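Appendix C: a fully annotated inverse folding record. The material below is reproduced so that readers can follow the format used throughout the book. The structure is listed first as tokens, followed by the designed sequence.
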């Protein structure tokens, strides 16, 4: 687990507090759980990695932060890794947070994770008092969307690990092997490089050169057949805790992709070039979505998954790259881009992910993988 500098901690707190003051809030409660990708907000503000159950960070506009655990989590996780001095273990974290707000005279408190992460029992305790709870997912994420140089070093380290995972998958790729046999070496490598449990790896597979659009867990029973189109979706966070995503399609047995996959690849090639110019400071997320999705919509394809989203220590952060999202991009924002092209009949798809950095000169794809459908015979560029 990498160490975060005191200056970086203060930068994070200052950005969040600036947002709280702007929005007339007294504090923010940041929720995290052990669900992969949802632990990151707590780690971002505390340095603590949730191993089991859940936790909250309470950051007031004025005063020191607190980290609050259910009492049954006292011996779960390395509590000494947090830089927060006040560590609280209580039967009902929601009641403790409610009482702290009352004792400090707070009236309005933002909550990150109100819709997806906070437990029902804690919400009931908080909502039962006079405290006004303000949903704060978007605002909190925007306060941390621009990454520091220290964060970008962690992002690049995660990308390096993730891209190597794809090459490991490709090295193992062969007709007759199971999906699990292909992903297993990737998981071994990810854990060895410090990702721990922070991996979310899936596959999309189909016959006759076309992949079915449903994500699924790699199977030990189904074996790769000649003519299959296989897309490993590799999503990991490296030792620094920053999530990244990469995927490319592979045509099994040296076979050609199907006609839908070839047309979708044309659209992907157009998206890839459009993203280089569209992902620039001052552009809106809506503008980026329109620019990168044109090639798909012009060919009549639906996009079955969000076009892209900010990504950081939580896997999916705001802003989304999507229709009607007017958030302006800024330099050093990081986005996962993955248009999920689906055929009209709903039976074929192409889903290829990249992690992009917004720079003054446009979008920079960080993984360095060519935008293509592989056949399994390729080797690493430095070989």
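Designed amino acids, in order:
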């Amino acid at each position: 687990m990498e160490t975060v500098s005191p200056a970086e901690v203060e930068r994070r707190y200052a950005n969040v507090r600036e947002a709280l003051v702007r929005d007339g809030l007294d504090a923010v409660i940041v929720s995290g759980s052990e669900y992969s990708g949802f632990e990151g907000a707590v780690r971002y503000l505390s340095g603590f990695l949730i191993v089991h159950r859940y936790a909250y960070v309470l950051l007031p506009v004025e005063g020191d932060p607190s980290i609050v655990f259910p009492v049954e989590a006292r011996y779960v996780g390395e509590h000494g890794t947090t830089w927060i001095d006040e560590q609280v273990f209580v039967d009902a974290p929601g009641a403790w947070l409610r009482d702290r707000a009352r004792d400090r005279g707070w009236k309005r408190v933002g909550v990150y994770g109100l819709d997806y992460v906070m437990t029902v029992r804690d919400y009931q305790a908080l909502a039962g008092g006079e405290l006004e709870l303000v949903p704060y997912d978007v605002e909190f994420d925007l306060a941390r969307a621009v990454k520091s140089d220290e964060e970008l070093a962690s992002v690049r380290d995660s990308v390096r690990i993730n891209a190597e995972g794809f090459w490991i998958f490709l090295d193992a790729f062969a007709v007759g092997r199971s999906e699990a046999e292909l992903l297993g070496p990737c998981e071994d490598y990810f854990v060895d490089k410090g990702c721990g449990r922070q991996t979310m790896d899936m596959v999309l597979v189909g016959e006759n050169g076309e992949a079915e659009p449903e994500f699924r867990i790699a199977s030990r029973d189904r074996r790769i057949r000649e003519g299959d189109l296989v897309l490993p979706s590799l999503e990991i966070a490296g030792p620094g805790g920053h999530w990244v995503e990469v995927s490319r399609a592979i045509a099994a047995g040296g076979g050609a992709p199907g006609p839908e996959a070839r047309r979708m690849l044309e659209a992907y090639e157009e998206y890839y070039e459009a993203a280089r110019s569209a992902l620039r400071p001052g552009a809106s997320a809506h503008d980026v979505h329109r620019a990168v999705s044109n090639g798909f919509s012009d060919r009549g394809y639906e996009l079955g998954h969000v076009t892209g989203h900010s990504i950081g220590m939580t896997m999916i952060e705001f802003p989304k790259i999507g229709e009607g999202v007017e958030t302006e991009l800024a330099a050093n924002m990081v986005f996962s881009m993955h248009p999920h092209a689906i055929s009209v009949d709903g039976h074929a798809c192409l889903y290829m992910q990249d992690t992009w950095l917004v720079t003054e000169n446009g979008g920079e794809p960080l993984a360095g993988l060519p935008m293509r459908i592989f056949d399994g015979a390729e080797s690493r560029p430095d070989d």
